[in-house]
Please model this.
Amino acid sequence: MEAFPLNFKKKDCKIVVAVDESEESMYALSWCLCNLISQTTINNLILLYVKSPPPVYSSLDVAGYIISGDVIRALETYGNDLANSVMGRAEDICGKFSTDVTVERMVGSGDAKDVICNIVDRIKPDTLVMGSHGYGFFKREKGLVGSVSDHCAKHVKCPVVIVKHPGKI
Amino acid sequence: MEAFPLNFKKKDCKIVVAVDESEESMYALSWCLCNLISQTTINNLILLYVKSPPPVYSSLDVAGYIISGDVIRALETYGNDLANSVMGRAEDICGKFSTDVTVERMVGSGDAKDVICNIVDRIKPDTLVMGSHGYGFFKREKGLVGSVSDHCAKHVKCPVVIVKHPGKI
Model:
């Protein structure tokens, strides 16, 4: 019985919440704030957003280059604005809960499932929290190789909480 | 923002922990006791164990019937003893954590992934906690149709916590 540590809840607790533009991920964040944040712990919440991979760049002539450049810049701006919007919304939710928690933003870019797994592997949080399906990057990649949450639950080492929005089941 | 309830943590909280004979499921139970049990909530913990399906009964003659009957009874006894052993161990772990929690046993029989999903669907807990791979019923069915935890994470409606034993990753 000695194999089971009685001090799972460390003094310093690091939780990664993967957020996107979906209601479900905001619901997962709310669940986390209500159920995993302890008053007896220093809680570090890392909001992780993954932007779409950069579009494939193609320009064979000068005119094409100019148009492609504009489109790419517009997409990059859109991606950054979306990331800021999602993060702002997530921080608003954190502020609504009267919990003692420090919130940090982290923005990645690329294949969501790989980015999440790589970051979790690097920063070694105590828990990863995420939505089940989602309507942002979760949905974008769902049809190809199974959902992002499936993949992360299989591959990350820490406990994973998968939260479904009750209205979307 | 009004869509996100601030009262996720109800006064009465019901958590199902799927346990089997593996170290991993006991680790998942410990994680649950440390991270999901609040002092401000009435916590109802349901320990769910799923026994193997009854063996296929085959007897073509009287001698065969007698032998089969003995074997079946021996297997049933073994299954019940194992269930009691796992439950006793799980309750010991609950007792080691100084938390205010009522613990209830629930034993099912059949295909673990279906039994867990059906029970969760029926009793509607706030959270389901389970190990990732396991060496009991989780392992028995892993090779056939993916792990039990994969299946449950996809099909149950409540938040699911999947915990991996750090020594088994």
